[in-house]
Amino acid sequence: MTIADPEKCxxxxxxxxxxxxxxxxxxxxxxxxxxRCTSCGIxxxxxxxxxxxxxxxxx
Length: 59
Prior knowledge:
Number of strands: 4
Largest sheet: 2 strands, antiparallel
Shape: globular
Low-confidence stretches: none
Mean pLDDT: 93
Number of helices: 2
């Protein structure tokens, strides 16, 4: 599962645009759907603010 650090997130939307599973939603805070996220890591690698990471069990 991918997790977001709200203190690092600049709400640029880059992660939303690259997610192939539509698992990321930006509302008041960045939310990642546990049902849709496959832990592919695309959003983690593309985030310009290093605000996303994979949980330890997914690495």
